[in-house]
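Take a careful look at the protein record below. Let me know whether the structure tokens fit the sequence:
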Amino acid sequence: MSPILNLNDEYARIDAPDFRPGEYLYLGQVRTDDDETAVVAVAYKPDYAIKKLKENLAILQPAAAIRECYLRKIRVGETDDCGKIPLDGIL
């Protein structure tokens, strides 16, 4: 199970002087009522991943019963994620 990360901590990290774009990727993902998962956004920063997730969610929602939205933080070059960031207020 992936650890739950705090979105505000991620914002603080990207505002830090030692932030290096490209070290991590943020995957905007959705889970449907049928338990299917889809990646609908990818970005180097969580705020941009959320923006693109919202844009793509507007297209998907009429056709899919989406029950959960979240970001997954992935270190570039690795296959395991660093954690999951719930996005409770998007739906």
Summary: The chain has one domain: 7-86. The mean pLDDT is 92.
